[in-house]
């Protein structure tokens, strides 16, 4: 793997913009950065901390997580709130998110401060519809993380970093989901973090304790592991013109320094899915 950018506290939320390059966040240090197609890094959104997930929006700008889910204009930095922690009595913020083909946003809420020493409490899964309305569609997730939709749109995958598994839900036509079941586990020491789905239906899961991306077939069987030079693998993103550039991002825990979070890139044989931009109303 090639290290392209380093010196961050906890890199998260990689999202590929075919026109500009790879956006990524630094949860601890703050800000959204752009790794351009020429591999130079610039600051896209200053200061904002706690961003665990992002998506492009069809109207331009980014949808980002954190204390709230907001749309951020990359032109002037203005924001529009799409979802607040009032969504449930337990919610205090949000982590990773994804979109479906229609442009809905699926996002998980947190019910405790993950880095604050709070005892774990279960959070929820929500969907923001195209008209901007919100539905809470599942519960009991101890530490919500990566989300991704199958190529046919009929399944939603959802990492639970403290529940020991990647969930899968059947998706209904209106965007709601059925009861969850276990799709895959990462072993006794594994921690399922960010995930992405490839064009062949395989599910690629960052292992936050394992220095790898674990790859599972569509039936949940373990296919292979992609080794990563740092242990705290937080998320990943398929990118490039053929979606076979795999970007992998890490945190600093277990690495050589307090700020060694890195963006890596390698080539893979299987192309990823092109993620649809969010199309939820911004009014």
Short key terms for the protein model shown above:
4-stranded antiparallel β-sheet; 283 residues; mainly beta; Neuraminidase; 24 strands
**Biggest sheet character:** 4 strands, antiparallel
The H-and-E topology, N to C, reads as EEEEEEEEEEEEEEEEEEEEEEEE
Report the principal-axis shape. globular
Strand order of the largest sheet: 1-24-23-22
Say which CATH homologous superfamily is assigned.
Answer: TolB, C-terminal domain
The termini sit apart by 42 Å
Give the helix proportion (percent range): under 10%
* CATH class designation: Mainly Beta
Number of domains: 1
State Rg: 17 Å
Number of strands: 24
Proportion in β-strands = over 45%
CATH architecture classification: 6 Propeller
- Spans of at least 5 consecutive residues with low confidence: none
Annotation field: number of helices: 0
Task: State mean pLDDT (0 to 100 scale).
Answer: 96
Coarse structural class: mainly beta
Named CATH topology: Neuraminidase
Structure commentary:
This protein has 283 residues and is mostly beta strands. The protein has one domain: 6 Propeller (Neuraminidase). 0% of the residues lie in helices and 48% in strands. It has no helices and 24 strands. A four-stranded antiparallel beta sheet has the order 1-24-23-22, with no helix packed on it. The termini are far apart.
